[in-house]
Amino acid sequence: TIECRYFKFICYKYSRMKKTLLMVAMSLSLTTFAQETKIDNMSLSVTGGYSDHLLRNGVSRLDDTFSFGLDITSPATNNIVPVDLYVGGTYLASDLSSPEGSIWYGGLGKTVELNDKYSLRLDGVVSAIDTNVDHIPNTVDASVTAALINPLVTPYVSYTKDWQIEQNGWTFGVTKDIPLSIDGEEWLQLTPDVSYYMFDDYESLVAKARLSVVRWDNVTPFIEGRYLDNDFDAGNVNWATHEGDSEFSYFAGLKFDF
After folding, report:
1. Looking at 67-71, 114-118, 127-131, 230-234, which range is the least confident one?
2. Of 42, 175, 180, 185, which alpha carbon lies 20 to 30 A from 167's?
3. What is the pLDDT of residue 97?
4. Three-class SS state of 254
5. How far apart are CA 44 and CA 51, in angstroms?
6. Is 71:86 a contact under the CB 8 Å cutoff?
């Protein structure tokens, strides 16, 4: 009935408003850690794009997805506590007129220089995920990551704890940023990344490569190709919409930096 549809619409808008207010509150909390004289060092980026599979922890959480995200970062040099602080949120939708879900996160990180060539990067992130998929519950997870930054490749290891879908486990990977020049000018950046996920009820391999146009200061077009290999029956689990059995997927979009 019209009344039922109207009630659902009001509830939906109220839910989205609460998440938006949460994002604002997290952003304000972040700024309280920043010194007023260095507040201009904070960075803000907006990313919009489309992916055939929204991947999280090596599995698909949503299919055929438009995304629109906001990320705010305050570097360690800004803050009373000398760590990087960051918050962000992403709206998810199967079409541009009807948002279906969201991802919200907050985290902190620290880069420790070991010598001239090697640094240790430590990060901790808490995320709230709402994909609005019937058989996948809204969930909150926390992860800690350690990466060894060096001129060759950057290996990393992460542990993730989830409180709703009860899929906890380890991620092992390597990544590297490779600048590509055209006529002596740096136009492109290629970022390959290979990661292996070992969680309670599944294992998954994700190999991906992102090609970004880095010629301009404030806008970065990108396209990412992925190879996904896992083995489970998506119809019998509450943490994935799709089984990626040796298949390819993609993600393309634009990033704006302010």
Report:
1. 230-234
2. 175
3. 59
4. strand
5. 22
6. yes
